[in-house]
Amino acid sequence: MSGTARPLTVLPEPKLQAVILHSFWELDPSSADDKLTQCKDYFEYYHLQVRRLNMSVSSKDTIGSVTAAMTHEDVIAIVDALHHGCHRQKSDLRSVLKTRFPDRADGAINDAIDLALRLWLMLNVLDDRRNIYLDQNPAIQWGEEDTLQSFIGGQFPQSNSLQTHVLDHDFIAVNIVRFGGIEIKWSHSLHDHLSIEQKNGRRLLRIYPFKQWLIFHLRWIKLSAQKNPGFTYVGALSILSSFH
């Protein structure tokens, strides 16, 4: 760890938050500070993910025994590798990251990749063997032979129907609860948005609440597609567009 690297277990200060926003979504550094107030909820989520990962570590160990990512700079580097290697299989990307984490086992690098995906894409990517989530949100796994592109697209299958549906203006969360007998459960995982679950005789509707993050990410996807023809997170772009 270099002398300037900031430990992952410490909440990033505003200057580092601006760096993260620029690194994740290419927000203009000169305007990133103005976005921080809009991103307060996001960085609470960011820190919560790290805290939960830390909670999964035994009292005799450290977070470094769980994940190769020890600093915020590590996470930024992993996100950069994922972004530029979105057409590579997970196993290939792990080999690329070995250059940054030469002494770490594959499992620790996998956990670091999963953490980076949770922080960057806000998808609950989590290995079955590491149950760090306390809110019981469903987890998804990225297979070794899948590319990041195909993995994300698989979470948001697109309809082949050309028919469009316009919802009535009364179709809002308050009325869903009042008249539909459905309970609302907030979910931090984008792939879980609008999923319905039957539990103990109750119907739970999961809703993803971070609209500002969606706006940032939709802008970033469009910008990346302009810079790199052929680049598109197809399914994610579809669902993000529906929020915008």
Write the layout of secondary structure elements.
Layout: H1 14-25, H2 29-35, H3 40-55, H4 72-84, H5 90-97, H6 106-120, H7 148-155, H8 173-180, E1 182-186, E2 196-199, E3 202-207, H9 211-227, H10 234-243
Parallel strand pairs: 1-3
Antiparallel strand pairs: 2-3
In short:
This protein is mostly helical and 244 residues long. Helices cover 47% and strands 6% of the residues. The chain has ten helices and three strands, in the order ααααααααβββαα.
Shape: globular
The string of secondary-structure elements, in order, is HHHHHHHHEEEHH
Strand order of the largest sheet: 1-3-2
Structural class: mainly alpha
Kindly describe this structure:
The protein is mainly alpha-helical and 244 residues long. 47% of the residues lie in helices and 6% in strands. It contains ten helices and three strands. It has helices at 14-25, 29-35, 40-55, 72-84, 90-97, 106-120, 148-155, 173-180, 211-227, 234-243, and strands spanning 182-186, 196-199, 202-207. It has a three-stranded mixed sheet. Helix 4 packs across helix 6 (106-120) and helix 9 (211-227) crosses helix 10 (234-243). The termini are far apart. Mean pLDDT is 77; it is low at 234-244.
